Amino acid sequence: MSVSFKYWDECADPEDMEAMWNHPEVRTEWTGAGETEGQRVHLSRDPDGQPYLTQTEMRAVAEIVTRRQFDKKLDPEMICAIAELESNRQPLAMGCDKKTNLITIGIMQVSPKVAEWIVREEDYLLFPVEEDPDILYKPFVNVYFGAAYLRWLSNFDGKKQFDGPSPIEAPTFPTSPVSPSKGFDLYWDSRVSSEDMEHMWNHLDVFKEWIKSKEIRGKVRFSCNKEKKPYLSRVELRAIAEIIVSKYFSTRGINPTVLCALADVVSMRFIDGNEASTGLMGIDYSTAFWLYKEMGYRAYRVDYIEDLTNPFVSMYFGAAYLAWLSEYEGR
Predict the structure, then answer these.
(1) What fold is seen in the domain 183-327?
(2) CATH of 8-154, one of 3.40.30.10, 2.60.300.12, 1.10.530.10, 2.60.120.560
(3) pTM, whole model, 2 decimals?
């Protein structure tokens, strides 16, 4: 990879550096580390020598971008959580989906094709990504396009087939990585425990939505796209996130809004996941099993990979992983 950064000044414009120095927590952290305003600021490095943003720096970038370009309509915590999960806050991170050959780069793992689509179709014209895709390695640029994609997702109605070019390149909605859902699998009650179903029925917004769609207890249908791929409505997704946080993470600082945003980005709310990952939150089986066995997150069992296609199970281990990341130090 030809792109490399040693100093903040190499990956941030002077205006961005001024904004960072004007952020009180960043100023305190930088001066405490021996940095001097007006001189080049060192990027932190992990034991492997890879540059990364500290949590303070990541938070500042998210706050600055959302304040400047998105009128504070996006939650900086959501952006920070995605950066944590996608890249460990490493601006030079790069990934590749082996099935689609889709390249993702930077701190929020934005695909150049996604960024180009956003510029072309959504008129986010601040950065010339079509001319120079490598600018996506710059934290402020990457967060800008990641936030723009989140804004697009927040206006996306999953109950309608998307007719335009998909920003994640797939011409249709993702295909389940597990067995195609048929028959009883299209019902909530076949995947979710009776206890969790009771919590769903007791959630006022879910109750209203299900009654309006004429659902009956014991046989609640999942919403499906034209290819019969089951997904959650935004009301259902929000309810699951709130229930999981309330029951298991109420003292851990986990934000249901962040969990919902992650599900939107990772799986577009499809309960089977997509071609690259399993389940609503995209938590792979090995990670879920490690969290269950080694870290003590045992509210739900994960005996088989198919267990992660239960939206409550996937949400639980997604929240558990986020809780673990928020406490992990040394990166």
Answers:
(1) Lysozyme (1.10.530)
(2) 1.10.530.10
(3) 0.61
